[in-house]
Batch of 2 targets.
Target 1
Amino acid sequence: MNTAAPQPNGDGGSPAYPTGPPAPATPPAGMGSTVSTGSPADTDNSSSPTGIECPISPSSPSSSTRTGSTAAPLAGVRRSLRSKLPLRSRLALLTALAVAFAVALSAVACWVITREQLRDELDKSLRNYRVNVLYLRDTLQQCPQIETAPSRDAGPSVAYVQTVNADAGRCVGTGAKPVRVSDSDVNVALGLENDVVRDGRTDGGTPVRVLTKSYVIGDSVFAVSLSRPLTETDSALDTLALVLAVVAGIGVLGAATAGLAVARAGLRPVDRLTGAVEHIARTEDLATTIPVEGRDEIARLSRSFNSMTAALASSRDRQQQLIADAGHELRTPLTSLRMNVELLVRSEETGRALPPDDRRELLASVKAQMTELAALIGDLQELSRPDAPPGSGAPRIAALHEAASAAVERARLRGKDLAITARLTSWYVPAEPSALERAVINLLDNAVKFSPPGGAVEVTLSEGVLTVRDHGPGIPSDELPHVFDRFWRSPSARSLPGSGLGLSIVARTVQRSGGEVSLRAADGGGTVAVVRLPGAPHPPPEAEPSQGGPAGGGPAFRAPEP
């Protein structure tokens, strides 16, 4: 072949076409100067890495078994990490993983975009390359001769050139490396496509970028494949991948370190809260509080914790106060009872009988003290009974007028010299009947106890408002806020019988039923106790045993008007 490889000129036009014989070169093994021919199938087999396909259905048993077998270990790993790693380590790990994912995604996107840009530049250079017509004619005329390998001096500086015939044959230009022919190249030679750009390989296995386009010289229609090696772009991409990997690694390490520092700083209030909880559990010191800083979730948790410890401390103080007050109230009747019993025992042991009147008085005192103890214990049991949880059962319906009527009859027996009048109208309330009657009795007992001889007590019940009015000495205004406290007794009533729990039971029972109770000074002297309870003037129809509530159609309970 007497032609040299075409060289592009400076203005991008047709390449310079030097004359003269090419420098002799020794062809490498496996390369000849004849035209390579073959069928398209043979060409595809040469360019394909393998001809074996093994499709696997996603719903095949092996695939589903493999997926199910890997799900359980992954769940176990997640549970193990949650149970073994502390919270700050998990936060740091999560931060590092998030940054690693973001950096990896950015690196891959950068690499892919750079690769596509380099490929576009390479494709643009192939499209702008113009092959000299004389070079193509000489290439076609020299076929089929022995293909000579390009010499070290005559290698193409821009692209390898070869022609492709419709029968998949090729003619390799001088100084070019033979590139394997594909079906797309044959389609261009057959006129089925104008041009095609693809990745290919030389016979030696070097990856190249190939542009095949149709040419017409005289009556001959054929395709010309221009190719450039991808080693120059691949080396740049490899360098870029290495740089991105190093930068990503540094970024992940920095993110893990920053995540650990941020987790430590963010969890410092949680550490203080944990220390406070451990201190309380160790010392039972409910006075411990946590400083509240800011308005974030940690500050909200600290405030909630302080409120909880304050409520627990108040509950424990009330419990201790209840125990102390109960012990104090029990000490007086027990001491008096023990003295009376010892006097009776000493009389029996010495044989010195007590006078009948003294003995009767002593036995009556013992009986009264036992009654007082029984009443005190009953009051304590009533106060210690917990409230029923919502939805635990059907509410009981009690007749407030019947409980008030029974309490009035009992008060008349206790205060025989008092004028007790009652005006009661029907009113039904959701309450425990026995507890409601006990509360009304306590109100009337309190009025009877403080009424002067020959005094009067008025009891009225109208539209859910129960009023008990006595004409006693009244309650000073500074003592009114304490009348419903447990074991509280007015200094002027210390000498009178009672435990100081009666009005506490009244307040507790009324509040359980959704009502309210109050005491105030009456005009003209005395005290007025007012109880308001929601209810209805008629009882609701009896509920079904399985429903636990009034059947539909009955009157709805309403709150009494103030």
Target 2
Amino acid sequence: MESALEALLTALTDGAAGSVGQDVARELAPYLASAGATGPRSVPQSLRSQLRTLLSTDRDAARAVAAAMEKRWPGSSAGYVSGDHIDFEGLFLGDVAGSVLHQHFHGVPAPADPVPTVVGSLPPATPSFTGRKKLLKQLEGFLRPPSPGPPPPGTVTATVLAGMAGVGKTALATEAAHAANDKGWFPGGVLFIDLHGHDHTTITAEQALGTLLEDLGTPTEHLTTEEQRVKHYRNQLARRPERVLIFADNAASPEQVRPLLPADARHRILITSRTAIPQLNALHLPLGQLPPKVAVALLDQVLRLADGMDHRITVEAAASTELAVLCGHLPLALQIAAAQLVWDPRKPVAEAVAELRDQRTRLTYLDDGERSVRAAFGLSYQRLTAEQAKLLRLLAEAPGPETGVEVLRALLGCTPPPAVLMALERAYLVDRGSSRTQWRLHDLVRVFAAHITADDPSCVAEREAARERVLEHYLTRADAADNHLRGSGALGCFKNLDEALTWLDRERLGLLAAVEWGEVARHTVRALDLALCLTEYLRRRGLFEEIVTVSILAQGFAARSGDRLREATAWHNLGDALQGAGRPAQAVEAFGRARDLHRARDDRAGEATQWNNLAIAESHLGRLDSAVAAFVQARDLRRLTGDRHGEAMTWNNLAIVLDEAGRKEEALQAFTGAAELLAELGDRTRAAETYRNLGKALESAGRNKEADEAYARALAIVRSTP
């Protein structure tokens, strides 16, 4: 009996039953060493139960132990191996109740060295997989077999591919796993399990271990705890002679995948997750959206796989680029959009683009019956707490592509809790922007969250209150910045002009987007004020088309509000921007509308200004007679209102146009009248300039003596200027 006990202890110590058996051997050794004095019955019941569980539930371990015993001491296991079963009862368990251990292995006449089953459950690769070259290279380095010899300390055995729903984590991991498998890097096989971490059928670690153990050929009906399954799972991997790759898809938490990590440094595990899992001491590879060219290439690849002669993506290059943008360069959305085109081979790409442009129906289009962007995002959303979900919804209402702390505070009505923001970031629902204090959402996540809000009246009320706070915040700061630009009024929250311009530059896109909220009656007045505050800044930056956009909105807001003065101001700003953008014909119409509104208000000064603007636009169109008539109207109105300086300037403008029209005498009279009036008013700079213009006109008419006199007057004025 002693030789059998020694054989058992040696077999366990040498690892015949893996690391679990070695743990048991260490605990058994003191008791078996004293077997001569007290007998093996001194072994505690808990230790007997542990060994009983190991040898009764792990068929391969039982075989390996018996084989190792026989190999070490031939005949030591003869009494325990008989025909189709192995019976370890008599070794030291004695007559303890429930100690009969029979492992039946039909067709196995005698123990032999175990031959592990080669497993292979890898899902098929995606034929249209495109791009991700850098990440594939990193995964290749991770999966490559190590150099001969013991693995170096600190060998990383796990990699986590993390990213938002639909970003292509599973496809990338599958591609890398197939490539490694095809190279023979995992002769022990590949184990695949979908953990369903983000749906209603989430698999626990214990359940996952059960599945993996079954795949490894180990029954689990007697392994009723996670601890037991972890030990047997790692024991199985440690005893396999060849490398094994485990692919754990759709993990949700470190607790779900930590028990699946192999203890043996030869093996590797690939994990995909929509949540960052930094707690595993694993290689962490975050996935983002595809680069634009790769996204278009993916569309082309899908269509050509279905029909090698389908060239729609390359033929409609511009539309295809926009289609990829509308899909957010997200692989799932791109695959669905491409599938819709495959289903309708006569459909132009431009038609698909037109269907996707409307944000209200975009997610409906990105659903092919089997795959759905809305459903994919919904699984991530349902895991959020109420506080996290609210912040995501409100972030989706942020007007700009990036949102800073100030706007976030306005959206929420309080300082955003850092922990909540971090939770959304770890879930890949929000991302850092151009700095660590700026946040952004993927375009399709923004669309998804907006849909959530639109479908719930309480969320709509929450949204409108948030927009009101943001408009108030923007208006306060934009008004202060505008005062700096115009050099008037209180300077407010900015120390100087540079600080005001820096803020305007950073928030420009958000400010412009917030103006659009004025379409809702609740926000019309604030949005109108904001639009008018932005005009000078946009003019200074030369952004005339953006002035056109906000001025059209402002004109509509003012008209609905019945504010004729601000409506006229908006038309004026529009005309001025159209003029700056080189669109004088449209500027004429805008200035005409502004003129009519001022006339209706009996505002002669305002009407005169618009006549002057109208005349300038007409002159740019080459319609000089119309320009002259408009300048005359402006001059007369300014004279009527007592605006003598304005009258003088209009005289000057009129003189220039008359000269261009070939009406020389009239031009000379106008130049003279303007110069004299400006000199009388003390505007020496403009008076000198006008006398020079008069001199040029006289010179071109051949009246050189009079021209010299005009030039002399100009010089005298300049010299007399302090």
